[in-house]
Design goal:
mainly alpha, single chain
């Protein structure tokens, strides 16, 4: 076939590819991560793709959960799963006459994901790791904290994955919260707890909440004195600002001190009352994403994978017997 000159659409497309490559280099994503398609131009201005970027095969995921059995003092809603934060960019439209060809020759969407940046995705494990979790045989696949950190693990806080404390005494006194979970529940009307009826009123929770907030956050806001674990999982003490972003050194030291005294791994709402500007789910996330991978706390319910990420292998994962 006789080659022809590049059409306006194809010139624009190659320019887009060039700009995308420059952007990748400016973000230090490494060369060749997204190899451009090789194009051979034939008569009538049609482009034929000879090679494309290979698609990564999806890997098995091992579910990780930090909740405990259903009870009045531990009705944390499961953490939302934190998959890779991805955005996509695609070729621009080039007018109605080029749309059909654009759809045919369109480049695969760019994925600005942790995987492309060479970072691990929390909770994502290989098929071998998933099998190890299922069989409870982690030999050669996942390491315990002691195995991972060697002699330095002796300096870490060791926990069994359970928090044995209650609301921080100062918070409890200021807010008039009872001294035990059972007393707190009964003092605010009692009732039978269930995930369908976390307020214990005998009425199922509606699917909509006032003000556009999530149902879980709305329900938690009603449980300050009745079920403080649920309340503080999503809310700070009334009048106290919630911080976001990096944790301070002081907050980290308090985290480790409380874990050493009371343990940690569940009831994150109660745990967070010792760290005023954080809520329970923030403590849970910080624990999985930073504390365990750093070796500050060794939790028997977690293993460390080859990339250094924490993998939950405890009994509260989905499908665990």
């Amino acid at each position: 076939m006789t080659k022809t000159e590049l059409s306006e659409y194809e010139l624009q497309r190659l320019e887009n590819i060039r700009q995308n490559q420059e952007l990748l280099q400016s973000l230090n994503l490494g060369g060749g991560t997204l190899a451009p398609a090789k194009v051979v131009v034939v008569n009538k201005g049609r482009a034929k793709t000879r090679s494309r970027r290979s698609e990564a095969k999806p890997r098995a995921r091992a579910d990780k959960e930090n909740g405990s059995a259903s009870s009045a003092d531990d009705s944390d809603y499961a953490d939302s799963k934190h998959g890779a934060d991805e955005a996509e960019s695609s070729d621009s439209e080039f007018g109605s006459t080029g749309k059909r060809r654009a759809r045919r020759a369109k480049q695969p969407a760019m994925r600005w994901s942790k995987r492309l940046r060479g970072e691990s995705i929390e909770g994502e494990v290989t098929a071998a790791e998933a099998q190890a979790i299922e069989t409870n045989d982690f030999t050669g696949v996942l390491q315990t904290g002691d195995e991972r950190f060697g002699s330095s693990a002796a300096q870490a806080v060791h926990v069994t994955g359970h928090y044995s404390g209650w609301v921080e005494p100062g918070v409890m006194q200021r807010l008039g919260i009872q001294g035990t979970a059972a007393a707190a529940w009964e003092s605010e009307g009692g009732g039978k707890f269930s995930f369908a009826d976390p307020l214990g009123t005998g009425k199922k929770v509606t699917k909509r909440a006032a003000g556009g907030q999530s149902v879980a956050k709305y329900v938690a806001s009603k449980l300050l004195k009745k079920n403080p674990n649920s309340y503080f999982y999503r809310h700070t003490e009334p009048g106290v600002e919630q911080w976001t972003g990096e944790w301070t050194e002081e907050e980290t030291q308090v985290f480790l001190r409380v874990a050493k005294e009371f343990g940690c791994g569940d009831k994150w709402g109660l745990f967070s009352t010792y760290i005023p500007h954080r809520v329970g789910y923030q403590c849970s996330n910080y624990y999985r994403q930073y504390v365990i991978p750093a070796g500050w706390i060794i939790d028997e319910n977690y293993r460390i994978d080859g990339s250094g990420s924490a993998v939950y292998v405890g009994s509260h994962r989905r499908g665990a017997r």
